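Holo prediction. Input below; ligand is adenosine-5'-triphosphate.
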Amino acid sequence: MAEVVVAGSCMIDLICYVSRLPKPGETIAGRSFSQGFGGKGANQCIMAARLGSSTAMVAKLGNDSFGRSTIENFNTNKVNVDHVGIVDESQSGVAQITVNDEGENSIVIVSGANNHLNDEDLGSAKEMISRAKVLVCQLEISPETTLNALKLAKEAREDSAATTTIFNAAPGLAGLKKEFYKYSDILCVNETEAELLSGVSVTDRASGESAVLSLQNEGPGCVVLTMGSGGVLYTLPREERNGDDSVSVHHIPAEPVNVVDTTGAGDAFVGALAYYIARHSSLSFSEKIRRSSLIATHTVTLPGTQTSFQTHTLPKELMVS
Ligand SMILES: Nc1ncnc2c1ncn2[C@@H]1O[C@H](COP(=O)(O)OP(=O)(O)OP(=O)(O)O)[C@@H](O)[C@H]1O
Ligand SMILES: *[C@@H]1O[C@H](CO)[C@@H](O)[C@H](O)[C@H]1NC(C)=O
Ligand SMILES: *[C@@H]1O[C@H](CO)[C@@H](O)[C@H](O)[C@H]1NC(C)=O
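Structure of the complex:
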């Protein structure tokens, strides 16, 4: 039994640090190399697991060493892998990242096995998804599979204990089907994704609010827009809105911190939100957002992606209802 189920991507990040990015046809010597676990799905699942949720991943890996080490990483973090499949036809997903001294990067993502996650896999995981408190999806696997996962979670049970869906529309996808909104209890986006989906250019708090209202009009339960150091804008879920029909946009500022590495901050936020919804349902939605934001901010003070998802140094009050 997993309270948080993530149907999504697993990647291995291969990062080369160089003084400058190579030109076409050029071979240059890099300074250093690092390999890390990534993929938005895996990252969000690991964050929820480290905070204390029982979690499960629904994903596809290649029959290769990257796939095997990804499974090991899930085991170490107590993530259930009953529905993590291995395919022979494709390699595990990889992100080849080159970072120069200015911190600029160029990235090639090969989704590989992630593209093989399909409806049959969802069918096998149906029981697990419909019993979960929260299902989390992103857009690093096939959009059709993502939509069907959200649909399955919302249609399997219509009782009050039905699964809450968090849809993190990342990376942004132009022309997203309207149906995605219908099956999303919580739509989570960053500024780039909000702009792509709403057409509203997000440059400050006022334009962020317009984008949130525009996305809310598409019909999700509620909308959450993370804005890096600008904090979080959000609407409340239906059950917390006051009787009157006007939907207002709320704001929670981010704590000012010494930024070391923001990679994965968005994933930390989404994983933490899944944890609070599953484990601390009595907290108000605003309090869940405030705490998720504090956790995401903590990760930007540490290097790496999953390596920055440290939970033992978090204030204990964050874990109490
Ligand atoms: N510079 C920062 N200072 C404080 N908090 C931050 C900062 N950057 C990110 N955060 C925290 O992380 C949350 C998510 O960050 P952000 O909106 O940048 O997501 P993202 O663009 O998806 O992240 P990334 O692509 O870097 O993983 C923010 O809402 C905030 O709580
Ligand atoms: C992976 O490949 C090995 C051979 O290299 C094979 O024996 C094994 O059955 C494959 N596993 C899966 C799940 O396809
Ligand atoms: C939003 O997330 C995408 C990945 O989904 C990333 O490419 C983009 O840089 C992020 N935007 C901001 C403003 O951080």
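Residues 182 and 220 are 5 Å apart (CA to CA). That is the main takeaway for now.
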